[in-house]
Amino acid sequence: MASSGESKLGRRLRVLCCSGSLEGGGSERQLWQLASHLNRDRFAASVYLLYRRGHYIEQLPSDVPVSAFWDEFDESKRYWPGQIRRLQIDHLARAISEQQVDVVYDRTFHMTLVTAAAASRARVTRVSVIVSPPSADFQKSHERFRWLKKRLLSKAYSQVGSTTIALSAEVADDAAAFYGLDRQSILVVPNPIDIKAVEAAAREVPKVIDMKASDATPRIAVVGRLSHEKGQRFAIEALKLAIEKLRTPLAMDVVGSGPDAFKLERLAEELGVRQHVQFHGFKANPYPLMRGAVLVCIPSEHEGLPNVALEAMAIGTPLVATNCGGSLRELIGSSERGELVAPGNSQALANAFCNVVNCTDEWLQRCAKARLWVEENHAIAPWLAQMGHILEAAARQRQVHYR
Question: What is the mean pLDDT of the chain?
Fold first, then answer.
């Protein structure tokens, strides 16, 4: 039996958690949670980034070292096609060997394209997470050499010594079909949420909201990266329609940064609702705004398992989302724990907004059921235990495949 401070392999496993950065996205948050909360008696965690940036870096425990690719290379230099990826693979393989890493962990296909080759070269096993249905997420991306990257990812996810995780059964089914993988080889591990931490953060007093609306104005929170697939344009259109239908003021807090920020502000101007919409940019703690909102809206065109949905349900704020993925359908059920509407349908979103504003008692019951669902299915402690077992199993594979 292993003693305290040791894994089943006889010592603490060295886990290298890899990400492009540690900015405010859902995948970055999940990676930070793993690196921060893995059992220190069994695991020694470190973080490898392509870019050393993001507010989660400062929130990592002091015993989690961070290294980054661009710390050692010149971003302003011109590189020929494919050279940066090759340099990143070389750099990561070297870091794995120098740190004597046992298992590499990554999220998102961008990072898997680097970790798969580097881990294989360094002769260590790897755990990779697919966060969204690739038929939408990857296929609709603006990746260069997409056909080649798809082939590389198909190889990476089926590679000997690799473990592939999907956030939901739907994502696993989609990935198996898209990449030609054995569906039975893909593990389904839903995202967790640290309920107590989110609740504590939600109780913080937010800064004064500078809006031309009274404190009694119902507010709608939309939280996420400001990019086309996240669908914030539909939420803004729905706000205008809901105000017209209710004939009463509504306000919207749009939290996040991204390439569509200017387009969305211009849309609000064109629709005549700019005075009702506040664009906050990225906020490390959006939870007070979510807690004070009459509802949280997820207007995306496609999603895996959005953290914002789990957070709204944990906080007790009504959730209105588009029917853009099996994970959301499972979360919300048959309108038991929220409301789903068709993607890209601003009128349907507006009707849902009005329903929440007008049917308070009914939504109190939905919110209570939503909170219970998150507690029973997405608590962080069982997730950490499951991930610990997966990482240990991956490390044992190394002994078999890389003797």
Answer: 91
